[in-house]
Structure formats: C-alpha cells, structure tokens
Amino acid sequence: MNNINNIAEAKGNLGVLIVGLGGAVATTFVAGLLSIRNGYGKPIGSLTQLGTLRIGDRSNNEFPLIKNFLPLANLNDIVIGGWDIRADNCYEAAKQAKVLKLEDLEPISEELENIEPMKGVFDRYYVKNLTGTHVKKGNNKFELMEQLRADIRSFKFMNNCSRLVVIWCGSTEIFFPANGIHSDLKKFDQGMLDNHLDISPSMLYAYAAIAEGVPFINGAPNLTNDVPALIEFAKAQGVPVAGKDFKTGQTLIKTVISPMLKARMLGLNGWFSTNILGNRDGEVLDDPGSFKTKEESKLSVLDHILQPDLYPLLYKKYSHQVRINYYPPAGDNKEGWDNIDIFGWLGYPMQLKINFLCRDSILAAPIVLDLILFIDLAARVGLKGIQDWLSFYFKSPIHEKDKIPEHDLFIQQMKLKNTLRVLGGAKPVSHTNENDEIFAEMESENKLF
Ligand SMILES: NC(=O)c1ccc[n+]([C@@H]2O[C@H](COP(=O)([O-])OP(=O)(O)OC[C@H]3O[C@@H](n4cnc5c(N)ncnc54)[C@H](O)[C@@H]3O)[C@@H](O)[C@H]2O)c1
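Above: the input record for the complex with nicotinamide-adenine-dinucleotide. Below: its predicted structure, written as tokens.
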C-alpha cells in the first residue's frame, strides 16, 4: 500500500449511523452491503470498490484500484445502526420498500432483522406527509440533541467502534432559508433551548454528530448542516462534513449533458424535466414545502454550469422547469423525461429527448457507500469542514459562501480523483501534454500561464 502521507490505517470497526434507517435508500444500501459481504452480489456503481486511478505519466502508467491505493475501511469492518421514526427492523423495512426482491433479501434476512432503529427526533411541521410512531421525547430541541449524542456514544461503545460516520438518508424536510439563528454557534445553541422553528430535526442530528467528533453527510436537499454555525462548529471540532442531496437520476444526466452543450457552444432555449415516482420519498415530495426544497436543489444546477452572464447569446433566456409527480404504481422505479430545446449554427433549433427509466435507490446505494468510506478517510487524514472534493456525489454541493459550487460531473470527478492521488502521495494529473519537450519547457518556465 502506497501511504506516504502516513494516513492512519483503517483499524477496527467503523460504525455507520443512518438517519432514516428504515427508508428505501438506507435499506437498499444496508441489504446490498450485507449481500456483497456474503458474496451474493457485486458493488456495481461504487467508485471505492471498482474504480481505479491513473498514476504516473502516460508513458509509464499504473492503474491501482482506489481501495488498494488508499487505506479505505474494509467492508467487513462496517457496523450498521441508526434511527427511524418507525420501529420496523431493516428486514421488515426493506420488504416494505419493495426495491430489492424477496429472493435477494432472504439469504441475509437474519442479519437484517438484527438491525433495529433507535427512536428518531421528529416533528411533523418539517415533513407534513409522514407520521412518526417511534420518536424521542424531550423538553426542548437541545435536550433532544443531547439524547442523540448519548445514542452515538452508546452505539460506539456497544459495538466496539474505533470510528463512526453519521449519514442523513431521512425524508426531505420543508424549505426554509438560513437566517440569523444559524449564523453562529451561540445563537444556534440558544435557538435549540428556545425551540426555534428554524432548527429542524436534521440539524439536531448534524449538531450531535459534530459535537461527538463524528463526520456527517447529508443525502437530502434539507438545509441541515449547510449553515455557518454548523460549518464553523465542524471546523472547530476537526470534523469533515459533506452534502447535500445525492446526485442520482435526472440531475446526474443534467450535469453531463449541459457541460457538453457549453463545451460545443450550443445554445439552450429550454429544459423541461418531469418525473413520476411512487415511493415514500415521492409521497413526501408531494407536499409543496418538501418539494420546494427539492426544486431549489434541482434548479440551481443549470445556471451554474451554463454561466448565462458569460454567454448571454447562448443561455440568457432559457426556460428551466422541474416537476415531480407522485404516482404510486411507479414505486421506486422513477421515470424521468427531459425535453431539451437547443439551437446551433445560425440559431437553427434542435431537440434532445431523454427518457430515463431508473431505480432511485439502486443508484443511491453505491453513493452512500462511497461517501461513508471517503469521509472516514478524510477524518483519518485530518481534513475538516466542507469536503468539496466530494461534490461529485451531490446535486447541490455545500460550499464556502465565497466560492461558487462546481456542478459539472467531469470536473467534479477530476477534482475527486486528483484529491485521492494527492492523498496517496501521487502527482495530480493535469491533462496537459506532459511528454512534449517544447511544452514541458514552456510549462517549467511558466510561459504558458
Ligand atoms: N433515492 C435517491 O435517488 C435520492 C436521491 C437524492 C436524495 N434522496 C433523498 O434521500 C432521502 C431518503 O430517500 P428514500 O427514498 O429512502 O425515502 P424514504 O421515505 O423511503 O425513507 C426516509 C426514511 O426516513 C425516515 N425519517 C424521516 N424523518 C426522520 C427523522 N427525523 N428521523 C429519523 N428518521 C426519519 C422515514 O421514516 C423513512 O423511513 C430523501 O430525503 C430523498 O429525497 C434520495
């Protein structure tokens, strides 16, 4: 193992605490992990398990697997736990989610049955279309957060974990913007004591994790840890954090197609995206408050990639619309349609139509695994605060407010892979013509830049 940066080895158990442990994404991830560990399935879609890195210049290459190049946690060392507002164990919940077939769940049913959620912190004000039956009680939000901290500590102790990660795979909460209460830790602490309405349950989980020195990932579009108070808290505690909203289906496609349009200087008149989706996530998103959170996350992508201010001729006037329709027969098999009106040479119009018949949780599960392994690595390296090299996985990457987020999937991928190269002690790949003598000379004399 190349580990010249002396990154601490991934020794001992890695506890993974999932918020929303009984949900479609969480159970598909957990069942998949157990299947893979038992040799029943393969980790398709996971960069940490299947991906390689090109190391060296192009005349002298090596292509090690990422998991061999860096000391990532071993899948056998992961211990799963978490919270839900319904008491079903993971086997019951996975059956209800109807993502994986019974024949795939049966061989691991016993292990799944043994994974039971702790009581969650929940308030219907933030997720209108859900009812919680397995919830904590407390006098105020601070007390509830303290109960979550106690859960984290006891899980760590009971499962003999050397490290932990907390990941939000819970439902999408209603939209509300950051405000004064989130501006610093003192105000936030007081806000918890005062039961301030702009402190949602997901924020309490994020706070509890950070307070316990545990990395936190947000897979939903909620504000959660994307507020100055919690980012500063993460930095002060030396904790890496990431988010938000897993980039799985339509936005994944959007962040591949739109950079292509810009790369070729093709114009855009309009992009209409619609989805039908029939799982519980679809039901939650049927509420306008939760949908608004998702819509904000989905809409921001195109403007950032296309830069209408820089290319007014091509992108100033395009119409971008996103719809999500709850349609129960579709279950977890989301169907997305994109109608893209583009224009080329002399303004002649053309169209692209994309019909993506995807499986939401099948696309999300490998992302959950990669994020857990990468953020655990980040913690062992000593990285803290926002991990923007993990933007690759998110629709709406959290970012320092003085920096613009990067949405283009291939730039995100380059950043991720170069970060991994550097962490492993290799040179980042610049994709310049490093073997050309004249070029190399210019580069060394800085004539090119
Ligand atoms: N599947 C994808 O492709 C994808 C992509 C991006 C984001 N997401 C987001 O991931 C989240 C999970 O998606 P899903 O399809 O698994 O939804 P789901 O409805 O099946 O699961 C959510 C789970 O969270 C639980 N929950 C809700 N509030 C909670 C709380 N306060 N504490 C503890 N548990 C709580 C629910 O009981 C449920 O079991 C959603 O927010 C969704 O928008 C999913």
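Notes for the reader.
Residues 19-20, 22-26, 83-86, 97, 120-122, 127, 130, 169-172, 201, 219-220, 245-246, 248-249, 279-281, 284, 360-361, 363-364 surround nicotinamide-adenine-dinucleotide (CB under 6 Å).
The CA atoms of residues 133 and 191 lie 26 Å apart.
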